[in-house]
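REQUEST
  id: r-88c1
  op: predict_structure
  target: Metallophosphoesterase
  payload:
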Amino acid sequence: MNIRLLLFACLFLFDSFAASAQKIAFISDAHIQNIEDYPELIRSMEAQVQSTRLFNENYFALLAALDDVAQRNISLVVLPGDLTDNGQFINQEKINQILTDYTKRYGMKFFVTTGNHDPALPFGMEQAGHDFLKADGSRNTLTNRCAGYEQEMACYSRFGFYPQPEYLYWESPFTSYVYENYAYDTAKREGGFENRHYVLCDSLTATDASYLVEPVEGIWLLAIDAGVYLPKTMKNGKLIYQGSSVGYNNVLRHKPFLLSWVRKVASEARRLNKTLITFSHYPLVDFNDGASEQMGKAWGNTKFDFPRVPTEEVGQAFLEAGIRFHIAGHMHVNDTGVLKGRDGSHLYSVQVPSIATYIPAYKIVTAESRQEFTVETVVLDSVPGFDRCFSLYQKEHEADLLRGKTPIWNAEALKSANYQTFCDNQFRDLVRTRFIPKDFPSIVKDSIAVMSGEQLLAYVSGEPSEAKTAAGWNGYDLIVDLCRLRYADRLALRDIPSERLAAYARLFDAVRTSDMSSEVVTRLREIAEIFEHFLHGEPCVNFRIDLEADSITECE
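RESPONSE
  id: r-88c1
  status: 200
  body:
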């Protein structure tokens, strides 16, 4: 009996030690295209500045991120979905090749999950694009086949979707065994694709790619496939499906089995003293620093990805099932969401920014103990090869001018000294070409964005403002900085001068006290309130989460 107790104590200490030393990199929403082997896949800058992600440079950003992870001697890497542009076979195979290469060279272990772009639809599709660049800068149309669940899971079979001989443990929501009698052969048999289906509605079945894996002693990685692809209509005798972008909001109704499985996994993690780290492509908690309600009222419940905001009911359900620490991508934002449960405990949901947009970064999670985690955010400034397409973009610019077409993007982007600056230039154009005209009320575009800082202050105060209080910025800068904060949170402060923040504060004070009745003042008041939410969110750059103390604190 004493020997058994001693053995249990040793195993307990070993688990705790293994967890405390374990670092895990999270790289999200790479959205790559295989422009290395197929340069004809390079897409236009015109397309890039109207997209919430890059299409070309992010290929090199993924390699730079993996090289940085290798230099830090981190062996566990999680990729929470949207690895490719849209699940195209040609891009998916390149991801497989890259991950296999880094596995062989550095001993990395990769764990992926599904995203709303891979698979874009459950049974795949064909996608035509009209903005691929020719050598002379003109456009070309290409059609690519995109994978569905079965092909994607087969391609990434060695990266978490299926059990592997080296895993200490693996299960899915559909396996029947328990930890104590785990055997690889059984897991392989029960975890096959043919056993990964559920009833979506009526007699219609669908696939779920969720899994739990123990890659090293003491660490449990729980991958939740929160994608639900609902049937939309029939065409030529075939079902046409909706996309899965709303994520968890469809899970409680259409995937209730996930909640009971997650509850079981969390309970087993506690019983076996495992460190449970849960991830999904989709956020589990509000990712707008508590501003979602105000954004919906001000700008409408279809703008700024409002339908993707998880309901509180969803977060409460998973918190009560035992999930306290959750990591996600999808929104391309750097954020930490905290949800208070009905029992007073909290769910901490960390949003990993995309490496394919502003600000490009990935996160490193260190399990200090079973209940304590530190999170570090690594910005990708240096990306070798990020400017490889610039000469082609210059030809695109020239070709459009020759055709009498004014380019919608700023050629100053081609002078970017590094990848982060290039992403910022693309983002500024994105705000101008897409967010302002499509997501904000029209008066923002027609009035606020074209007014100088001095004019805005004078307008809301009814008095001429001193030039020094608002010099050097205008309404467009204000909207860009608002969007920067929404995407990058405190990382954006590197691109917003403190003097400008102080000028904004004076404008916001004037707006709050203004008795002027005008839409400009009303909209500025909304912007001020939402800006303050984004500016004062939870710690999201370098921070510590202590589940036992139920706290989150900044790290130096």
